[in-house]
Design goal:
mainly alpha, two-stranded antiparallel sheet, 74% helix, 5% strand
Length: 118
């Protein structure tokens, strides 16, 4: 049940994103659900490998290269999911940053601090 709620939170964050950035488009609710699922899978499977491979660059840039990796993952999800569009690389970086902020805010509103460790 909790996993479904988190999935809905991330889909809701994707639905809010086009109102804040004109370069990100989400066609409908189902496209947002698919994009949230694909983003979750990409972040679970591909992102750790990229972070490990780019660790020297990340250390030199004091962690700022993680923003580039997040943008690439966001852009990759947009190229895979039909109905989810991002205009380019830099809009993907900004979209990934806003997406994570919105998801964090919605999660913190819906879950109590004590619920995080169950």
């Amino acid at each position: 049940m909790r996993l479904l709620l988190i999935w809905l939170i991330h889909a809701g964050a994707l639905l809010v994103l086009p109102y804040l950035m004109s370069s990100v488009k989400v066609d409908d609710f189902w496209a947002a659900m698919a994009a949230a699922l694909v983003l979750g899978l990409i972040n679970a499977l591909i992102r750790p490998l990229l972070v490990l491979l780019t660790l020297p660059v990340t250390l030199v840039t004091l962690g700022l290269f993680i923003l580039v990796i997040n943008g690439l993952m966001f852009w990759l999800a947009a190229s895979v999911v039909r109905g989810f569009h991002v205009a380019g690389f830099w809009p993907a970086v900004g979209g990934a940053l806003l997406y994570s902020i919105i998801s964090w805010a919605l999660s913190s509103l819906l879950f109590k601090q004590n619920d995080r460790y169950r």
